[in-house]
Amino acid sequence: MTATGPEHVPVVVIGAGPTGLTAATLLALHGVPALVLERHRAPYPLPRAVHLDDEVHRILQAVGIDEAFSAISRPARGMRLLDGAHRVLAEFQRDNPRGHHGFPQANMFDQPELEQLLRDNLRGHPAVTLRGGVEVTDVTLPPHGGAPVEVTFHDEDSGVSRTLLADAVLGCDGAGSLVRACIGARMQDLATAQQWLVVDIRCRLELPAWNGVHQICDPQRAATFMRVGEDRYRWEFRLRTGEQPQPVTDRRRLLALIAPWTPGIPEDDLHVLRTACYTFRAQVADRWRTGRVFLLGDAAHLTPPFIGQGMGAGIRDAHNLAWKLAHVLTGRASENLLDSYQVERRRHAQQLIRTAAAVGAVMTGGGTGTAVARKTVLPGLSRLPGASRLVLSAVSPPLRPGPLVGFRRLGHPRPGTLCPQPLVPDSDGVPHPLDDLLGTDFALLTTAPLSPALHALVRALDARVIRLHDPQRPQPGTGGAAHRGDPGTGALVRWMGSAAAVLLRPDRVVLATAARPRPGNTCGDDLAAAAAAWAPMLCSGDRAAQDAATVATEMA
Q1: At what angle do helices 54-63 and 18-29 cross, to 10 degrees?
Q2: How far apart are CA 199 and CA 188, in angstroms?
Q3: Mean pLDDT score of the chain, rounded to an integer?
Q4: Alpha helices in 433-485 (DSSP H)
Q5: End-to-end alpha carbon distance in the chain
Q6: H/E/C letters for each residue in 49-102?
Q7: Helical H runs in 78-205?
């Protein structure tokens, strides 16, 4: 503490893993400075997470590292389910590796490389400061539970403990979260924990194995194998009852475990990067927020690895919270908006955790009888039409109806789902990923002129309007970002169904829709009327409040 008092910053992010760095960068994009505090001075060097889906890759696009991530990642071909003798029970391949969000549906990568990309990207965001070599020792909320929040940390270089004040604190500090303890939150078990041995190996020679994820469906020794990079491979072996949860130091035993995947490969070419034992937990925190202190990532939830959603769930947390917090801190939205973070994200994470636990049980659980049943059922399942698409499709569920998720209307896109991202031409006819045209805030996709009430709502939200030319309607549009006959625009219009307008949140989640009007009429009165439930929460600035009042007047 200095003579002038503690340093005061808008947001402190505790933890510089992918979740924390993503949150800090997104806050900066919304105009809010952030200070990131991290124990390590460089990315933690050992491999951990290895998979992200196309929805999370899209968030990396929002951060600005999608092209760099594509350069260090590798699309996964699909998945094979095998028995204990490594005989194929079922194979599911991706016909089209690119998903609805513009990126490969499954991306394999090395987590330290992703963290380095995120750190390097901070050079383009001077509003974010990263301090390494510091350990946070306490987080103290004010008696009334709001702000400022006191953050105490120990600086390794000076050996001095310091305190600073923050308008908000994001606890991205992992499974052993100090922030979680400071707000009195506790983890709740959703499934039984399991002990697994994880092995990462680098080999200059390509292993003679099918180029996809291998899942060994053997209750005696369940295992997973995947190629992570050009020369990197990952194995995970479930420990048997009685086996000690400790890394394998006996090289001969280790090579015996991976031998089914390495025939003909000289032992000297198999370089062990790491062996570690992990407890795969299925847990979710009972509370994700107290006042202006929030939990994100592993501090809030732990997901078994069977569907590859652990780290991605943390990045989704950051994407959901960053715009809401930025709008509140900059005076654009009311404090009540922050209540929606736990409501939306906890349910979503909990469903993914339960899905992962269920998938793991189906593929690896049970005894001999279950293994026999798998051998009988899985081969037939894999031959069913559409089976691969069903098994390999995105597992992320829609957000449930709530304050910022309207109810579904027949024939309209479902609120709470993500808008797809095709390539859409700009006004000069140059194609861009849709999000690059939408900007960083609210956006409205429409195929019809807007009613006065919807115009007022657009102004209140400062939303960007993208006028799409409906390929099935002969009249041309007026301005906007698309040209009739363009495949990407056609895909968007088909996705809109019978809706004439779709309102998107800054995280590209569908908030509400408007029905298609009769020819010659404007659209949006129904959407504007529905906005009465949430517009006051999102429109707290002077001009926004005036525009929100105009919406009410137009609807009266």
Answers
A1: 50
A2: 28
A3: 89
A4: 434-438, 452-461
A5: 55
A6: CCEEEHHHHHHHHHHCCHHHHHHHCEECCEEEEECCCCCEEEEEECCCCECCCC
A7: 111-121, 178-182
**Which residue carries 């893993």 as its tokens?**
17
* Calpha distance 535→549 (Å, rounded): 10
pLDDT at 435 over 80: yes
Which pair of tokens denotes residue 464? 């960007």
Q: Give the pLDDT confidence of 365-374 residue by residue, as tens digits.
A: 777 777 777 7
Residues 197, 277: contact at Cβ < 8 Å? Answer: yes
Q: What sign does the CA torsion over 366, 368, 369, 373 have?
A: positive
DSSP SS3 for 238: strand
**pLDDT for residue 68 is more than 70:** yes
Residue 206 C-alpha from the chain's centroid: 31
Instruction: Map residue 274 onto helix, strand or coil.
Output: strand
Short-list 40, 360, 27, CA closest to 170: 27
Q: For residue 63, which amino acid is it?
A: V
Q: Looking at the predicted structure, is the pLDDT value of residue 415 above 60?
A: yes
468-513: per-residue pLDDT in tens? 986 655 544 434 444 446 889 999 999 999 999 999 999 999 999 9
Instruction: Give me the residues paired with residue 284 across strands.
Output: 188, 301
Structural contact between residues 69 and 121, judged by C-beta atoms closer than 8 angstroms: no
Structure tokens at 468: 């799409």
Q: What is the pLDDT of residues 444-457, one digit of tens each?
A: 999 999 999 999 99
* 0.85 exceeded by pTM: yes
Which residues partner with 153 through β-bridges? 136, 162
